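We treat protein structure as text, and this decision shapes the records that our systems exchange. The tokens are whole numbers drawn from a learned vocabulary of local backbone shapes. Below, we set out a record of this kind in full and without editing:
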Amino acid sequence: MAPDAPPRFDVVVKSDCPTCQVIVPVLVQMERAGLDLQIHYQDDDEFLQGLEGVRDDTSLERSFQLAIDTVPTLVRTENGGEAGRAVGWVRSDWEDLTGLTSLGPDLDPWKPGCGSKSVTPG
């Protein structure tokens, strides 16, 4: 039997969400830890400069595929299926999903997310 592939992580963000702006250092930590990470932005990627796994989701295609209603959202995928998600910024949830500790040590432990562009009328 083949070994399980390592988990993949998708994070969906948008620039006009204060919480998404605040968690950029967490995304840097996740990349530096070597996680298979894709960061999907719904509007502008300017605030994500320096990150490698950045993907354009201005079409919202990935947001719809992942059923995103709040940003930021972190989705863990294992063996082709969703294995968990964290909505908004809740440090303990993000640490549980990623297996990393001390994420965002200078951030508040909890911060609500913002409405996803995929659920915004118009």
About this structure: The beta strands are 8-13, 36-41, 54-56, 70-71, 73-78, 81-87, 89-90, 110-111, 114-115. The first helix runs from residue 18 to 22. The mean pLDDT is 95. The chain has one domain: 8-119.
